[in-house]
Structures are given as C-alpha cells and as structure tokens.
Write a structure and sequence with these properties.
Layout (H helix, E strand, L loop, with lengths): L21 H7 L15 H12 L12 E6 L3 H14 L8 H18 L9 E6 L4 E5 L3 H13 L7 E5 L23 H10 L5 H26 L29 E4 L3 H6 L9 E3 L16 H7 L1 H9 L12 H16 L5 E5 L1 H12 L15 E7 L5 E7 L11 E3 L5 H8 L25
Parallel strand pairs: 1-2, 4-7, 5-6, 5-7
Antiparallel strand pairs: 2-3, 4-8, 8-9, 9-10
Helix pairs in contact: 3-4, 5-11, 9-10, 11-12
InterPro entries: 6Pfruct_kin (IPR003094), 6Phosfructo_kin (IPR013079), His_Pase_superF_clade-1 (IPR013078), His_PPase_superfam (IPR029033), P-loop_NTPase (IPR027417)
Protein name: 6-phosphofructo-2-kinase domain-containing protein
Keywords: ATP-binding, Coiled coil, Nucleotide-binding
Length: 456
C-alpha cells in the first residue's frame, strides 16, 4: 500500500502505461470506442500524464479522444464505518485478523493514501465527482451523452445485493391472437369494456397464465423474505429507504408489505395482470419503454408471414437483424436506446426488483446483465413461465439462475450460471434450448424461428 517516502512514492518514476496491455493497444488502434483506466491517478501530475497519453496528436493521430476523470469522495463517518466493515470482511488482505485490528490497519492505509492524494481542481479538465455514494455530485465540462446517460448511471450503481428478476408475461388464451412483441394494437378488436375486464378481473391470461401469475406471486414473496433475512446478516447494505446515504432518510412507500420491492411492467394488459397479486399488493409501475419491439406495418405477423408479404425486407432482416428497422416501427438498435432509462432505474434500486416485459426487451436486459454483446441479443431465448434471476456476484458480475414456475415443454433445463466469470460464447451454449416458442403466445409448441433470425 502507498507510503509517502521518496523511494516508494508513486511519482518517483513514470507510471506504467495504461496503453501497454493488449486490450489497450486494441483501443488505441480504434477497434473499441471506450476504455476505462482503473487506477489510483492520485496526483495532478499523474492525471496530466494520462491526458498526454490519450490526447497527444502524435500518439493518437487521427483519433479524437476525450478523457473524463471520475473521483469518489466519502467523508460521511457512518458510511465510512460501514464500508470499512465490508472491506475487511471481504478482502483477502485481512484474513485471519480480528475485526478491530483489521479496521485499524485499513484506516492506517487510508491515512497514508490521503497524505499524497490531490483532489480534482483543474477547471480545464472534464470530471465527475461523486460524494458519499451519490448523495451529491459535481460535474465539470460534461456534455451530451455523458450528461444524459453516464452521470445518471454513476449515480445509480451501488454495492447492494438485491436480486433482479426478469419475466415474460403469462400466456394468454389461444383464442386471442396476440404477438408477444406487438403493441396494444393486438387488442384493438376488443371493446373497451372487455379490455378493462381483461385487466381488472384476470380474464386476459389463459389457464396456465393465471397459474403462472399465482406461482410468481408466491416465488417473489419467498425471494423477498429470503433477501431481508440475508440482508440482516451482512456487514454493510445500502439503506432500503431513499438513496444510499445514512442521513436524510425518507419513509418507505408501503410499510405494510413484508419487504420493500419494486415491480416494473410494460403497459400491456397481460404484463400488468401477471404482477397483480391480491396476497402481495406490491405497487406496479407501468413503463411504456418496456413495451415490446414495435414491428410497425408487420405488427401481429409471424416470420413466415413477413417473408411472404415482403421478401426483400425479410432478406434485410435476416442479414442484419440488429439494425434493420421495421417499416413504421423500430429496430433492435432503437429498442436498446429506449431501454437505457429502464436499466438505470433497475440499477439504482437497493431492494428486489421484478420486471415483467416481453421477449425483445428481456433479450436486451439479459445481454446487459450477462455483459454479452447487445448486438447479438436477438438470439437469446426467453422461455415462457420462467423467472430469470440475477444476483450481484462478489468481485463483479452477476449470477444468473432460471426458475421454472409452471412446467412447459420448452422450459426444460434450468441452469445456474455465474456470468461474471463465464465467457459469452459458453453462456450461449449453456442456455441454448431448442424449439422454444418465443415469437408469440399463439405459436404451436414445436415451432421456433430460423436460427439466423432474431427471436422476436
């Protein structure tokens, strides 16, 4: 650890180059758009060197590069105390030490670090300062996408251990032809009275869909109680009330529930009904951004119908399913853009989150939590009546598990996968389940889209 003596001072020699590794060399050649240099960068001199390495016309000729520094500052004594406990209980540096001695050792390291640390003050640089786990932020020269997406994301990320649950809506009756990726147009032939009845009285879901709704309620209730029990045993957990600070806490929205939770659904009646539970009345937040991919002129059609109606468009869709936009509708690239705010909303939660949506949206969210290329998310299969659970893994990443709540032929082979350590190609192989009917609820159980096309 850092010592301020000359012979061990980090400034006594040039720091090792961030562009020396293979990933960084690839970034310098322009194959990747973003690089994160995770290092101490504790002095103004070191930060100037980084700027020189990344922005020098000689070293980055023809490749305009922006540099943003991110600084996290914590001076809240209550937060520091909790963080110290979490650190010493989870770091191998303190194995075999009692808690009091480990914390004293850690505090000594922090003091050595503080002796030479120089905070960000250069107003000509772009930087984001985060105070006390997002209690307060300071930004300087931050514009465009950085302000729109990155700043909210930095505020949202936290070290909480809350689980995140993803689920398709329950199956609807075969007599009502609905496309799992259609908009509310799929019910335009029904009267407004019937729509209200479908939503409020449970007639929207079929028999197995209603069975899944009840099973999901029981499953989510048990998971929430387990989360609360495990939370009490952990050294540090963010507040379940407003924000993550230890001060200025608000009140929970519903103290009558056995545990705090957040449920997000699309505005589709079948998705809302899947999360309407009498025995566990968690408030539902409907978000139009969770609506399925808008297929525009091809709304309600299957792949074979699209191919028959417009062979030229079908050919383009087959060759580039990510960027091809449906006439009058969306592409998967468009879908990813509108899901950004949903991801930030999910990430900022410190209590269990359930998302009830549709195949296209869930494919994108699964790719995010797996840290797999979102451009390839169209091939991710999302079985019916199955909950996909993501739990933060120690050291980063997420542990993925699938829980079949209502047996369906396509649901065989639920797996538990640590997505923080398993390569993406192995994930695809481990989760490949042939003949999964994920284009629409009304497809026959043995149909599946061609392997080269998105599982819309």
């Amino acid at each position: 650890w850092l010592d301020n003596e000359p012979e061990s001072n980090g400034e006594s020699s040039e720091p090792s180059s961030p562009v020396g590794s293979s990933p960084s060399r690839r970034w310098r050649k322009g194959h990747d758009r973003i690089a994160i240099f995770d290092a101490t960068n504790s002095t103004a001199k070191r930060r100037r060197w980084i700027l020189e390495e990344c922005t020098s016309p000689e070293k980055r000729a023809g490749k305009t590069t922006g540099v943003v520094f991110v600084e996290s500052i914590c001076d809240d004594e209550a937060l520091l105390g909790e963080n110290y406990k979490f650190k010493v209980k989870n770091s191998p540096d303190f194995e075999g030490m009692d808690l009091e001695s480990a914390i004293a050792d850690l505090k000594q390291r922090v003091r050595k670090y503080e002796e030479q640390y120089e905070t960000l003050t250069d107003q000509s640089q772009s930087y984001i300062k985060i105070f006390n786990l997002s209690t307060r932020l300071m930004v300087n020269h931050i514009y465009g996408r950085m302000a729109k997406t990155i700043v909210p994301a930095l505020m949202a990320w936290n070290i909480g251990t809350r689980p995140i649950f993803l689920s398709r809506s329950g199956r609807v009756p075969d007599m009502i032809k609905t496309d799992e990726n259609d908009s509310e147009n799929s019910m335009l032939d029904l009267s407004s009275h019937t729509k209200k009845k479908l939503l409020n009285k449970g007639d929207g879901l079929g028999g197995s869909g209603l069975q899944y709704r009840d099973a999901l309620c029981e499953f989510f209730g048990q998971e929430g109680k387990t989360f609360m029990k495990e939370r009490l045993e952990k050294a540090s957990s963010p507040s379940l009330r407003t924000g993550t600070s230890q001060t200025g806490l608000g009140t929970l929205e519903n103290d009558d529930l056995p545990f705090p939770a957040r449920i997000l659904t699309s505005v589709m009646p079948r998705a809302i009904e899947t999360a309407l539970w009498d025995s566990l009345p968690v408030p539902i937040e409907t978000i139009s951004n969770l609506n399925p991919l808008d297929k525009g002129d091809f709304a309600g059609m299957e792949l074979d119908e699209v191919q028959k109606q417009d062979p030229r468009f079908y050919s383009r869709l087959e060759s580039d399913p990510y960027n091809t936009r449906f006439p009058g509708g969306e592409s998967y690239c468009d879908l990813i853009s509108r899901l950004e705010t949903v991801v930030i909303d999910i990430e900022q939660q410190v209590a269990p989150v359930l998302v009830v949506s549709h195949v296209s949206c869930l494919q994108a969210l699964i790719a995010y939590f797996r840290n797999s290329p979102v451009e390839q998310c169209m091939s991710i299969e999302v079985p019916m009546h199955t909950v996909i659970k993501f739990t933060p893994s120690r050291g980063g990443g997420w542990i993925e598990s699938r829980h079949v709540l209502v047996e369906e032929p396509e649901n065989a082979g639920a797996a538990v996968i640590n997505v923080g350590s398993v390569p993406g190609n192995l994930l695809s192989m481990a989760n490949h389940q042939p003949n999964t009917p994920i284009w629409g609820d009304h497809k026959s159980k043995n149909e599946s889209p061609p392997p080269s096309l998105p599982c819309l």
